[in-house]
Amino acid sequence: DKCTLCAKCADFCRYNAIAVISDRLLFFEQLCHGCGGCKLVCQAGAIGETEHHVGVIEKGGKPDLPLYHGMLDIGQPFGVPIIRDLKSLVNNHGTVIFDSPPGTACPAVEAMRDADYCILVTEPTPFGLHDLKLTVDVVRELDIPFGVVINRDGIGDDRVEKYCSEESIALLAKIPNDIRIARLYSKGVPIVEGLPVFQQLFMEIFERAREAV
Ligand code: SF4
Ligand code: SF4
User: I need a labelling partner for 6 at 20 to 30 A (CA). Which of 46, 65, 81, 209 fits?
Assistant: First the structure.
């Protein structure tokens, strides 16, 4: 009732979740990222917020190695709120490793935000290099120290390595393209348990990240 149809909220929303058409305001709930910006710009006080169930956070793992994971409800397109809640839940529990969604969209940015260090995992392919460059831009914008791990080393070329060298980016490790890793992965067995030879490599990645913080 308070809405004056000024359309400031629609102009503000980067996700096109609001449209003002003629004498009506339309809200497309599925497009909303829950940033709250429309409420801030609405001078009429016509916008409120409500709780919205988007998923659950589950806890598992081992007593000395708890594992939390967020699971979106089927049909929920945006994971940012659940990632935000997950981070607030575990942030003070010593060393925390977040497995970020891939890419540079909002969920990945939310996962990286406030991190002490980012380990960017890529593959030595043109596609991997393309995405790596985008992600490097984001972590630099967020001002987070970072390094690169090349996964499935051997399947492509050396352009990722050259890029890291040219950009003075720390190359933390190269994980070989090894069919045994894929087999373990398909069975849900951690690499360091199924192939203890990799323990040293992962410890080195961790130590280099810790030294850089
Ligand atoms: S909800 Fe607020 S900002 Fe949006 S059109 Fe109405 S009055 Fe304007
Ligand atoms: S909360 Fe953010 S994303 Fe959702 S409608 Fe408002 S401005 Fe758009």
Answer: 81
